[in-house]
Design goal:
This protein has 388 residues and is an alpha/beta fold. It is globular, with a radius of gyration of 22 Å. It is built from 15 helices and 13 strands.
Length: 388
């Protein structure tokens, strides 16, 4: 594990910027904010007020100022750029670190005097006008960021392809889950799982990218198993109503749990974890499942193959037959599940930790500050502000 105190804190403020988030990006920003402030670094998080309500960055030691950046481009982006400029002008900013393409675009248009770092957390999957606008935003962000960080190797490749002059891999570590508060039997009893009945779990935002329709369609086939598995999906999002309708029509044994804060408990009760996304970088739930020793079936997309190696069963995206077959093979073979669970724990032990992630970012920030200071005499503090 990297020592998070090995690099001195920067003088001035590190600004962390994010757009609307209910999941992994917000958790990552909170993790980074906590790690930086624990070393004495002044951190200001900027983003929608709703992100502060959900992730409580101030409890992690950071300051927070609202800058409303919605999940999709709107005319309000002009106000977000102006608001960010006002924030930066009032601070002694040493680094601006935007998380995600939406936040990166607002930061790029604000033209901070301090070095701009942008972490690419997601690939552009949309088509049509929205896809074209997103790909244009990619080029703007890549051209104006001092460093582009990709959460997976395909994102690094994409950032380079659209103009980033310095693109680097920066794996996002899932925050460590707390110990389960309930016993396995109590968790399973909540969902009416009887003895020898499998509990299949998935966790993530209810969004078309997650392709929970594939899991629902596969689960509908499992009604004829004896006993039929119980499938639960924890998460909230815009796809809730279509998924609920699909579950009802297919008579699938699937329950939508909504937002949950007890993922550690859910994993303690689960026999199998499933990820059916069209794309992921280093999905937090996939990391949590392997750390918890829960066998995982996941789509071989984005950064997932590099993340899990041979410690999960990988299937093609959008393939109901493949998900069905993979889950059946694991449910029918306890020794295979046990082997996969052991390999998962071993694989997870070699991943970067939250402390490693924070230490790498502090090294990067120090590198950028030194580059910006130029050939100043030793011991000379070169002042920097956020003023454009």
């Amino acid at each position: 594990m990297t020592d998070p105190t090995s690099t001195p804190s920067l003088r001035g403020t590190v600004v962390l910027l994010l757009a609307s988030s209910t999941g992994g990006v917000g958790q990552h920003v909170r993790s980074v904010a906590r790690g930086l402030t624990e070393t004495g670094q002044d951190v200001l998080v900027c983003g929608p007020a709703a992100t502060q309500e959900q992730f409580d960055f101030t409890a992690a030691g950071a300051r927070f100022t609202p800058v409303e950046i919605p999940a999709s481009p709107t005319p309000a982006d002009v106000r977000a750029v102006a608001a960010l400029r006002r924030v930066l002008a009032a601070e002694d900013v040493r680094v601006v670190h935007a998380h995600g393409l939406r936040a990166g675009l607002v930061a790029a248009l604000a033209r901070p005097a301090a070095p701009l770092v942008v972490t690419w957390h997601n690939a552009v999957l949309a088509g049509g006008l929205r896809g074209r606008l997103s790909r244009l935003a990619e080029r703007v962000v890549a051209g104006r960021a001092r460093v582009a960080l990709g959460a997976s190797t395909d994102l690094v490749t994409r950032a380079t392809a659209v103009g980033a002059t310095d693109a680097r891999l920066a794996p996002v570590a899932a925050p460590a889950l707390p110990a389960p508060r309930r016993r396995r039997a109590a968790v399973r009893a909540e969902f009416g799982v009887v003895a020898d009945q499998p509990l299949v779990l998935s966790v993530g935002r209810l969004h078309p990218q997650k392709r929970y329709d594939v899991l629902v369609d596969a689960a509908a086939r499992w009604r004829t198993r004896t006993p039929p598995p119980v499938v639960v999906i924890a998460g909230s999002g815009p796809a809730y109503l279509p998924l609920a309708a699909r579950i009802s029509t297919a008579r699938a044994p699937v329950t939508l749990l909504g937002h949950r804060t007890d993922v550690a408990d859910l994993l303690a009760g689960a026999d199998l974890a499933v990820v059916t996304s069209d794309w992921e970088a280093r999905q937090l739930f996939a990391q949590e499942a392997l750390r918890a020793g829960v066998p995982l079936v996941a789509t071989g997309v984005g950064g997932l193959p590099d993340l899990v190696g041979d410690a999960a069963v990988l299937v093609p995206a959008g393939d109901v037959d493949a998900v069905d077959a993979a889950v059946r093979s694991l449910l029918d073979d306890a020794s295979l599940r046990a082997d996969l669970a052991g390999r998962g724990v071993t694989r997870a032990a070699g991943w970067p930790t939250e402390a490693d992630t924070v230490a790498a970012l502090r090294d990067l920030y120090a590198e950028l500050a030194a580059d910006r200071a130029g050939p100043a005499a030793p011991g000379t503090d070169t002042p920097s502000t956020g003023r454009a």
